[in-house]
Amino acid sequence: MSEIAKAIYRLKEELPSNVKLVAVSKFHPAEAVLEAYRAGQRVFGESRPQELHAKVEVLPDDISWHFIGHLQTNKLKLVLPYVSLVESVDSLHLVEAIDRWGRDNGKTTDILLEIHIASEDTKQGFSRDEALAVLADAGKYPNIRILGLMGMATLTDDESVIRHDFSSLVSLRDEIAANIGKFPSLPENFGILSFGMTHDYRIAVEMGADMVRIGTLIFGERVY
Question: Which of 62, 99, 105, 155 could form a disulfide with 141 if both were Cys (CB 3.0 to 4.6 A apart)?
Answer without folding.
Answer: 99
